[in-house]
Amino acid sequence: MSRSDRVLADAEAVLRRHSERGQSLTARARQRRNAGLIRKVKYAFWAVLAVILGSAVAGFVVPLGTTGIMIALGVMMAALLLIGLLPTETRVRTEALAETPLTALPLQTEIWLENQRKALPAPAVTLVDSIGVKLEILAPQLERLGPQDPAALEVRRLLADHLPELVTGYQSIPQPLRREERNGRVPEKQLVEGLAVIDAEIGRMSENLASGDLDKLATQNRFLELKYQEAKELGQ
Question: Domain span at residue 165?
């Protein structure tokens, strides 16, 4: 099986999984939150067990008495409180995307998008779901690229530069002004149009990687910049 055949098979397998399970970006984010909750429950269990065992050992040496028991309970409650304050969801800082290894970038970008979800309008959220599906398809394809390949650099520019600039530019605008026309432009509409272009571009990247047409992928970026340059200027 050729490299392009393997990539096409990977893409088709991911698409089948999405068709069978109906998974969206939201569903995968829910899975990550559930995994975070399970981790917190495990931490709480081990913390309580450690306090109980520590108290039992101390009790063999010095009788705890009422004061000792109250101290143990206080330590236990403090540990549970600290564990409860731990974030359930994984957080990805915008600036961290630029430092993320290429193969991990699609997943980190997906998590970053999920973190921004509550601050986006409904039409944009629909596109975020679509982008999340395409990022999952793209991830295994990037394993066949070197970090300094021209195609890899274009993928990084799109996911670590262009996409965050578009979203953060929109978020920098005061909420009451996001649906108002400014110099002939409506920020919310520009955001949606920009996300639509990026969604389509990620799809084209996957197609080019699947077909082995890396030169086409490396020269596509200029077209993308021209297409959504106005949307990228939302915060200006």
Answer: 94-228
* Tens-digit pLDDT profile for residues 82-127: 877 766 566 778 888 888 898 889 888 988 888 888 888 888 888 8
Other C-beta atoms within 10 Å of 211: how many?
13
Whether residues 81 and 99 share a domain: the answer is no
Longest CA pairwise span in the chain (Å): 78
Q: Scanning the structure block, which residue is given the tokens 């698409």?
A: 15
Residue 163: name the closest of 63, 61, 58, 234 by CA.
234
User: Which of 85, 119, 144 corresponds to the end of one domain?
Assistant: 85
For the chain, percent of residues with pLDDT exceeding 70: 72
Look at residue 69 and tell me if it is in a domain. Answer: yes
> Both tokens of residue 139?
């991830």
> CA–CA separation, 190 vs 172, rounded Å?
14
Contacts 24+ apart (CB under 8 A), 87-92: 87/36, 88/33, 88/36, 88/37, 88/40, 89/29, 89/32, 89/33, 89/36, 89/114, 89/115, 90/32, 90/36, 91/115
Residues shown for the chain: 236
Contact between 163 and 232 under an 8 Å Cβ cutoff? The reply is no
The sign of the torsion formed by the CA atoms of 78, 84, 90, 96 equals: negative
What's the first-to-final CA gap in the chain, in angstroms?
49
Radius of gyration (C-alpha) of the chain in whole angstroms: 24
Structural domain ending residue among the three candidates 85, 113, 146: 85
